[in-house]
Amino acid sequence: MKNVSRQTYILIAIILISIVSFSIYAGIGRSKYQPKSIYESSSFNKLTGVVPSNDGSNDLYILEQQGIIKKLSVSSRETSTFFDLTNKIFMYDEDGLLGLAFHPNYTTNGYFYVFYSDLDPLEVAETPRCTFECARTVLSRFQSDNNIVNYSSEKVLLTLSHNEPWHRAGNLMFGQDNYLYLSTGDSNVMPRAQTLDNLYGKVLRIDINTEDEKYLIPPDNPFIGFNNSREEVFALGLRNPWRGSFDHKGRLWLGDVGLDRIEEINIIEKGNNYGWPVLEGYFCNALPETCDDPQYKQPFFQYTHNNTKSIHDPYGIAIVGGVEYHGESYPDLVGKFVFADHGGKVWAIDYTENLEINSIKFLFRIVDGITSIGTDEDGEILIVGFLSGRVYKIELAILTILRVSVVMIVISLVLYKLVRLIWNKFKMRSQSNL
Asked: In whole angstroms, what is the distance from residue 343 CA to residue 366 CA?
């Protein structure tokens, strides 16, 4: 009887572990991936982006909306303040510190570029108590020496005035051509994305390798010599192209946040017009004959704000750019475009060489407001959480199952020992009463 009872306890423990493990697996859902914070305690606040150091250290620079850039040492897990512009930053709704890009030769020249919001001093002088109606966005270059920023080195390259608290955009990065690319947002009230005499609702491309001028115009920019046109413009017809990235072929993928219907992913090419405000994705905001104009380029992919099929199908409230995965940890994601919605869901698009979509796979959901997706130096994906102040990486969901299973085995063994002890005491008491 003693051996039978022991086997029974072991069998019960195995059954309990199996039930718990299966429940955990079912709770995770159909995806094999899950998010995991890259640091245990949050020392960050209202994050807007993450940029790798690209100096071989794999350290990360994390942007806070209030105007602070913190450096996270991956080796020591320690954080330090690299850049603090809180004394200048205007933070309201979509204003704040929006973009960061290191010069390709940063390790030798110390140059880095930021895109941020402040209050136009001329506007404030006229209207001392103004807020967002006096806001402007600023593209500036700073210089650091051994990662110590010289704030007096600021060189303002570009300013854009705003009279609404939205659509600043701010995807700032260098292309493979070593030119600096900046995305800008457009107005809902007075859209200007379709005209070339301004820099709103555009992708700009400038040559910053000059000391004599603020910047130069690349000689192959598409609108050089056009009447009444800004020659910085590389592409137009965008609403709020908040986040994007270059793939291994040098193509710029850019998410464009829609008004109230469509979120879209565009592949930005020189001189292209992406339709806003005439089009919002495939949706026509004008006369049909106007929307059918072949000058308007259709998005690579779009999704709506309403879910009509599976809960894992793309839908949401605001697209958050994306990156082509080129890491080594997950071979089945290599070459896929990973993007997110601000509501927390993350997907991966598998596509052909001809940019035809094969499939769209739901990866996981983060209970957070996602504001950016980037990669570390090794090409591993990083996802930025605005509300939690966390940066997440991707890991296999099976790791959680294994970790919890080990815990459950330990618990089961403890319970087994406890039940066995109680059972033996019960037997001894029963025998003593005979």
From this structure: 8
Tens digits of residue pLDDT in 131-161: 888 999 999 999 999 999 999 999 999 999 9
Residue 105 has pLDDT above 50, yes or no: yes
Strand order in the sheet with 111-119: 97-102, 111-119, 135-145, 148-161
Kindly report, residue by residue over 413-423, the tens digit of the pLDDT: 666 677 667 76
In which residue are the tokens 């005209």 written? 195
What six digits make up the tokens of 256? 């464009």
CA distance 25 to 47: 31
Quote the pLDDT of residue 378.
94
pLDDT band for position 405 (50/70/90)? low
pLDDT band at 1 (very low <50, low <70, confident <90, very high): very low
Asked if the model's pLDDT at residue 240 lies above 80, the reply is yes
Q: How far apart are CA 176 and CA 281, in angstroms?
A: 28
- Name 236's Cβ contacts closer than 8 Å, sequence gap at least 6: 193, 194, 196, 201, 202, 203, 272, 273, 274
Nearest to residue 348, comparing CAs of 369, 373, 328? 373
Cis amide linkage into residue 35, ω under 30° from 0:
no
Give phi and psi for 90, each to the nearest 5.
-105, 120
Burial tier of 200 (Cβ tally within 10 Å: 0-12, 13-18, 19+): buried
Mean pLDDT of the 105-134 span? 93
What's the chain's average pLDDT? 89
The pLDDT of residue 402: 54
Angle at 318 (CA atoms; ends 313, 321), nearest 5 degrees: 85
Query: What span, in angstroms and rounded, lies between the C-alpha atoms of 421 and 432?
Result: 17
Mean pLDDT to the nearest integer, 238-265: 96
C-alpha–C-alpha distance, residues 249 and 335, integer Å: 11
